[in-house]
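Batch manifest, entry 17 of 40.
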Amino acid sequence: MSKINIQENTAKTILSKSKIPGTDYVINPYVGCLHGCKYCYASFMKRYTGHLEDWGCFLDIKMNAPELIEQELLKKKPKTVMLSSVTDPYNPLERKYKITRQILKILLKHQIPVSILTKSDLITRDIDLLKQFKKIQVGFSFFSLDNKDVKNFENFSSTPVRRIQALKKLNKHGINTYAFVGPILPYITNLEKLFAALSEANVDFVYCDKLNDVDKAYNRVKDIIDNKYPYLSRTYPYIFKQKTIFWTKRRQYIRQLSDKYQLKIRILFK
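Output type: structure tokens
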């Protein structure tokens, strides 16, 4: 992996109008993400950052984000806020900078309904704040429970076991939880195991999605397939060319699993 470029920056704004259904505004406390997931759709953001490093090899810290939040909440008056859409609010440097934690304190003061999506069990550090919100939901994303797969595609995130444990811990404190299962990688993502684990963790909802082919995400995934899963090298081009056949069957299978494990689901792909 390339050398990591860390910069402390001053942002011009922090509350961005959201295009995500059910979310009014999004907050991205950082630019970039150190988890460096190979399939990440958010890598398209690189072209707006001025960075030459690979996605996952740079992080800009919005040092003034807490100050901006105080100012912008009064002007924009969001009904709901999501942390985050194109970064992980609990990337590894959050442990040091605590930008997300500071933002949460301000949102809590105003009791703004919050939704959080992360891959890091670092979020359990902030349970003392999270449990004080009147409306909040915390989600973890998964594409596999297999550590080998995780190492191949998202080597710098918390292990799946730690994410499941974090979900259980959050639930014990009465915090609503959900899971984002995606991207579903054909013949790699074991949906049965994931649904079983999520059912045991007692999540309230599960979203399911396939690979978002933005900014050559498929090509990055295909490179790993060719190197680490050569037996799938010919299968993947066929699946992504004949999308309807494979993904129609996946939708049916997901519905069967949701019934089996009594999980509420929303399938985001057609």
